[in-house]
Amino acid sequence: MSQALLTGLARTNRPQSAVRRFLALDAVVTGANGLAYATASGPLGEFLGVDAGLLLELGLFLVLFAAGVGWLATRPQPPALAVKLVVDVNALWAVLSVVALVAWLEPTTAGLVWTPTQAATVAGFAVLQWTALRAAGRTR
What we know:
Layout: H1 3-10, H2 15-39, H3 41-48, H4 52-74, H5 80-103, H6 109-135
């Protein structure tokens, strides 16, 4: 990803600010998703064709994860190792979402659309965060 594209997406030419902005965006989206899964696991489970208990557990995990990512976003200079962990968890989430879709979920049509869409979104966060971290020269 070019520096110009990264700058445009983050709305800043300071790579450290880009890292924080992409973490903050991830926290908001992940937190909203987690809250939805946790508070409406029954109806969403039926709509998506996913077990309500699984959605509840995933929702609670996502809320906690989002809180941690949000906290990192508030740091003036988030620790590179912590940002790398967020990137790794996001990448793992994206891969496991697709594997679950193929291996053991029996989703509805909505679930067939939602699962790869959210996986692509999470993978996008991982790419943006990693690229911003590299631009900040903090990948070592």
